[in-house]
Prior knowledge:
By secondary structure, this protein is α/β, with parallel strands linked by helices. The protein contains 8 helices and 6 strands. It has a single domain, classed as Undecaprenyl pyrophosphate synthetase (3-Layer(aba) Sandwich).
Amino acid sequence: MIHTSSTVCIPIVTKVPRHIAIIMDGNGRWAESKRLPRVSGHAKGLETVRTIIKACAMQGIKFLTLFAFSSENWRRPVDEVSFLMRLFISALEQEIAHLYTNNIQLRVVGDLSVFEPRIQKLVHYLEIKTEGNTGLILTIAANYGGRWDILQATRKIAQQCIDGGDIQNVNESSFAEHLAMAYAPEPDLFIRTGGEQRVSNFLLWQLAYTEFYFTHVFWPEFNDVELGKAISSYRERERRFGRTSAQLTQKS
Ligand code: IPE
Ligand code: IPE
Ligand code: MG
């Protein structure tokens, strides 16, 4: 399905966000605050992932996108990176049955070409296996970077132009069709846990008109109550998309 760009058309706003994107941050600091090794924060964070997937599915959220590993996270110590890779594999292996019984469709976005073939095969298998599921569409962003995404879309468009395509046909809507998450509407709500107030190269293009919610709660302590607070905050926002407040009241 092709979704309209928020800068081309005014999107339909629903009370319940259709798409929530989350930067799951604060695992390391949570562990350090408990005098535990940083990696135990990642293991605990995986439990939160399960809780939040379930809560979103129950609340009728259609798209949930989780930032699991950024294109800059390779800069971390080798031991932490390899722990995260192992955790990713075991989570994928263990979640198959759960995804299936809960009618969840899994998608993974990011540059997977650098991952071990075993991970690539597993991801491919899970995507195919769950593609007919009609409930929540869960996207895991792994080795993802917003700049990488814009660049890979640009390369595809440049190739089409070399192959005889008309550059005049390149516009915001056609560009967005080449982004890794073209199957999803732009996020309505962006949540970042762990206290930092930055985007860290997440969905740069798609966040143009997304509502932001920052919380100091570390990801391992985030839960359905905290998710509820984020959604309540979202419901109070006035999404104007460039218009005035008065224009919105006239319409309703
Ligand atoms: C987020 O938690 C998880 C990943 C980036 C994989 P962090 O590991 O960044 O936790 P802090 O920010 O160091 O506390
Ligand atoms: C962003 O968190 C990436 C993920 C949560 C996967 P980071 O902890 O890596 O972000 P920075 O480095 O503090 O901006
Ligand atoms: Mg962090």
